[in-house]
Amino acid sequence: MEILIIAFKSIIIGGLCGFGVGVGAARMFHAPTCQGMGAFRTLGELNSCEGDPTAHFSFGLGFFFNAWASSVAAGSFTQDVDHRIIPNWGASLLMIKNRNLDETLHDPKKMAFACAFVGMVVVLFLNTTTSVIPDSLKITATKVLVPAANLLVATVMPVIFWLAALDAGRRSGFWGTLFGGLAQLIMGNAVPGLVLGILIGKGVDDSGWNRVMKIMLVSVIILFVMSGYFRGFDMKMINSFRDGLSYWFK
């Protein structure tokens, strides 16, 4: 009886979550004409799949294992469920028969219902499997699945995005490498910087150094400076140079 209650609540919650995520992700492509509801990285990651349903599915699948391991081991969802898994799988579902972005990924109504269905399935699976797995297996998941998923997110995904930046052109490769390296040093993960670099590079290729691109570049630079300052990156870098010099004078 308990598992049926969990399943019923999971379907409702997953459907509502997926509906909102689908609408919000699709509306982001229509900014600034209308207001979107989603993370900036979601927009960049959806664009990076270039309208390929297989790419959208495989991208979401990579983060699905991380989310599954987290739900089994810790009993909670990661942000990847609504930021990466649901929107990418919803887009993949719509693009199986139609790869026209205006009629699939950019359509808030179609994305809402597709992501609502995906949300029902994903949340139902995560919650039901978590509730029936014994505690002994949860310990195994913590020791095995979580490190593997972290390796995927921290190592494999940055490499994939870096290769995508290089493949997108000279400007995207340059800005992606620059911002990706800074993001790795400051934030510990190169993906946000690589996504920003790809967007800036492709934006310059399409429209040149107009006012919007200049404002975006300045905003990204300010973002890195503020992030590095509040994370104490500047002091850590200074101290690392001091430690290195101390060995030469001994």
Description:
This protein is mainly alpha-helical. The protein has ten helices and no strands. Helix 3 runs antiparallel to helix 6, helix 6 runs antiparallel to helix 7 and helix 7 packs antiparallel against helix 8. It is globular, with a radius of gyration of 21 Å.
What is the element layout, followed by pairings?
Elements: H1 2-27, H2 40-48, H3 53-74, H4 80-95, H5 108-132, H6 135-167, H7 170-187, H8 191-207, H9 211-230, H10 233-249
Helix pairs in contact: 1-4, 1-5, 2-4, 2-8, 3-4, 3-5, 3-6, 4-5, 6-7, 6-8, 7-8, 8-9
- Terminal CA distance reads 71 Å
Overall mean pLDDT: 82
Strand content: under 5%
Tell me, briefly, the overall form. Answer: globular
Query: Any low-confidence stretches, pLDDT <50, length ≥5?
Result: none
**Largest pleated sheet:** none
Order of helices and strands: HHHHHHHHHH
Question: Which range best describes the helical content: under 10%, 10-25%, 25-40%, 40-55%, 55-70% or over 70%?
Answer: over 70%
Structural class: mainly alpha
Number of helices: 10
Instruction: Report the radius of gyration as a whole number of Å.
Output: 21 Å
Oligomer: single chain
Short summary:
The protein is an all-alpha fold and 250 residues long. The chain has ten helices and no strands.
Describe this protein with a few key phrases:
mainly alpha, 0% strand, 250 residues
